[in-house]
Amino acid sequence: MANELLFFMEVLVGGLLAGTMYSLVALGFVLIFKASATFNFSQGAMVFFSVLAFCGFMQDFNIPFVLAFILAAFLMVVVGLCTERLVLRPLMNASEDTVLMATIGLGYVLEGLAQAAWGVEVRRLDLGIGDFPVPWIADNLKLFISALDITAGLVAAIMIIGLFLLFKYTKIGLGLRAVADDAGAASSIGIPLKHIMLLVWSAAGIVALVAGMMWGARAGVQFALVDLALKALPVLIIGGFSSIPGAIIGGLIIGAVEKILEVYIGPFFGGAIEGWAPYVLAIFFLLYRPEGLFGEKIIRRV
Amino acid sequence: MKPVFMTYTKKDLINLAVCMLLSVLIIPTFIKTEYWYTSILIPWLCLALATIGQQIVMGYTGQLALGAAGFMAAGAFAMFNLILRVPDLGFVGSLIVSGLIAAAFGILFGLPSLKVRGIYLMVATLASQFFIIWMIDKFGWFKNYDSSGIITAQDIVILGKPFTTPLAMYFVCLAVTTILTLLAMNMARGSTGRNWMAVRDMDIAAESMGVSLLRTKVQAFAISAFYCGVAGALFAFCYLKSLEPVAFDIKLSFKILFMCILGGLGTINGAFIGAAFILLFPVLLNAIGNNVFHGAIDATIISSIEQVIFGLLMIIFMIYEPLGMAKLWENLKQSMKSKLSSSGVKGVKTPLLKK
Q1: Domain-embedded: residue B198
Q2: What does pTM read for this prediction?
Q3: Taking residues B284-304, what's their average pLDDT?
């Protein structure tokens, strides 16, 4: 019995920590959605683009880790700038669905550019953190938890706290919230809309880079990252599109439920139910609580 | 213009006659190379049909769905099993029933559309994509316990006659596509289509006008999935000639979404234009790579460039012409007409005079 409980705990903790990896991707979506009510479908492509560039800088040009990170982050700022200028500004008054489709196009552009520049083969990314159980925890608590998972959890926690403080206590954060509330009213009282957009897209780009590094260290830097990032969508539905804590909780729920289902129910169906279980979970959430756990209620009028 | 037969106007009938003449007489007489049939015309017809399905749910009913390939897979594997297990049904019967099976999936995964819209719905339809592919992959029964992963599709036999040459398969696809396209036009113009468009433009307003949201949306999803299912069956049996779940992955869904949007949302001819463009553009790009640069550019680079161009086009169309290539074509025709009439050609009315 104790063994079974321990095994369950291990699955649960492993799932929760893996869930923070989804949260990291979801965080990028939330940032942009919060500030512009735009759903940025290209977030997954941004993850792929940024981490592939990071790998390319490090492996093809032998640039040291920190400098490569700064360069990749700078690249994401440039991407944010171009997106704001060339895609978002002309679509300022377009409908939500139109902007969403434009971001699907943007995702294609980023994926294509990344592959044209750095090639299509899978790259290994070594962060110096192994994807193996931490001996100390394994010895003392009898739980086998990957060091990478713990790092991802810590990184996620730091980013959440940072972003939370930014939104809550700085002038920029106040501006961000004002723009999210009503872009027209915010710009009429002198909040520089384009700076805010640039800031948000850059922040989302850097979040994407960090998420990509975590994913890349686990699964290799490859195109499949884009599909993995799609799993951030059910996370957002559960957590709510406009809530940073929601992204985290949503990620934890998806991570845990996915692992538990896979381990306990998966064998009856031949396994690999991870592929669709999060989406079906999201559908059930949609039916009962369409706005997510922490989202704002959607009110539509004729 | 007044309809002369069902909802079709005189102009439609002329268009139909021209298309039929072109596709039944001119193409088979002038195009002899198999390559054109097996690699361009057949997949074009199949994908155009799937795109019409996507149009119905997205262009006409305004529901953001992203799971066309899943329904195509359902149709293709239903077809395989029907021919295998219920041989009495015949090819046409199996095609219809596999469309209906796909439609059943469409209804199931279309139900969330009653509650949610936009990106939320997109996620719900993604579930169908992943679930259907997983189901086919995991339960051996669907693949007749074939362990190799790739199953050869059975030969097409209609009324005892085999349809195995590329030209014969082209005619099969052409016949099915023509019938379903005419039906789609009919539906889009009748009360069914009016209801779809009312829901697209403002669902709450439509509901208060007495349009049943449940009926309209579920109907749109079912019909859309039917079209995708039939298209998937044709795609597998006439084009791929094999069945594997991987052929119907999320990438194909995105491709069909692109065909639908670039072609022109809410138009039937846009489905054909979009499918032709997405299918032919890579061929063109490869030809340029081979003939102009003599293979100096790597094939993977070419496919990356292709992706960048599709993405850019998507953005450009969203900014300048959200109604896609069908609208561009319409504008071109309009400007030609007004040029002709201003230069004194008789019998062409300018839109200005009509007012």
Answers
A1: yes
A2: 0.89
A3: 82
